[in-house]
Amino acid sequence: MNSMNIKALMKKYQIIPRRSAGQNFLVDKNILQKIVLSADLKTSDNVLEIGPGLGILTEQLLETAKKVVSVELDRTLNYVLKQEFRKNKNYSKLMIVNQDALELKPVDIEDFFDHQPYKIVANIPYNITSKILRKFLEFKYPPTEMVLMVQKEVAERLVSIPGEMSKLAISAQFYSDIEIVSTVSRKCFIPAPEVDSSIVKLTIKNKFPEIDVKKFFQIIRISFAAKRKQLKNNLANGLHITNSQAEAILTKANIDPTTRAQQLSLDDWVNLSKVV
Ligand code: SAH
């Protein structure tokens, strides 16, 4: 892999990484390769990259992809990227956008990729991981897959099993198949963050076409409203029904009414939303 020297770039442009923007630049070539390999890029692929930073991943994505759109919030980094990639042989395939990725609208993505499917491949800022996941999982124009560098604990939460399920885990598992590709030491970044990371791959699938999605997530919101309370109480409160009505619904869905929300499996939630 013929990749750029991040330290030299930081020096050249006098970049002082901003912690508030989650700026931890990847410098480990093996990890870089793992990200690119797990994205399984084809020459026909469109890629949305969120937070390209100094472009270490961007450069590799451009080697194979048909088109890469890199959305970077930081204005200085946008300038650096444009300066540096101007000389790149694949520059015509790259679009650098100075924007907050959280503000992207479906029409923006349609414009970027001419209504074609796209993948997200990104080493994203940790402080917006949940927001990015939620946004693009629930997006009107979702990617076909997401290969993301996330905080190790977040990766573990995404693949949680019943007993420790969170709303984020349910949502991720509802919309996708999730695989932890690799764990990544904090030493692979400059500056080193305070936590270790993992590469995760989410393959987006329409797993439950028969489900009313709005109702499904409404029930989950209701059920997690008071985490210490039994499921039947949360359900009764949220649906404005009596405790015994809530109990009847849960029993019909084969769920113990005294259980708590984090104990349910994805299949339990699917059953429940069919019964309600
Ligand atoms: N992908 C690069 C940089 C990772 S650091 C690498 O692997 O080295 C995270 C990057 O996300 C930073 O460049 C930061 O400026 C950018 N960023 C932070 N918040 C953002 C947002 N809301 N939208 C787009 N980019 C953002």
UniProtKB/TrEMBL annotation:
Its EC number is 2.1.1.182. It comes from the Bacteria. One of its GO terms (molecular function) is RNA binding. The keyword Lipid metabolism does not apply. Its main location: cytoplasm. HAMAP family: 16SrRNA_methyltr_A. Specifically dimethylates two adjacent adenosines (A1518 and A1519) in the loop of a conserved hairpin near the 3'-end of 16S rRNA in the 30S particle. May play a critical role in biogenesis of 30S subunits. Belongs to the class I-like SAM-binding methyltransferase superfamily. rRNA adenine N(6)-methyltransferase family. RsmA subfamily. NCBIfam families: ksgA (TIGR00755). This is Ribosomal RNA small subunit methyltransferase A. It comes from Candidatus Falkowbacteria bacterium RIFOXYC2_FULL_36_12.
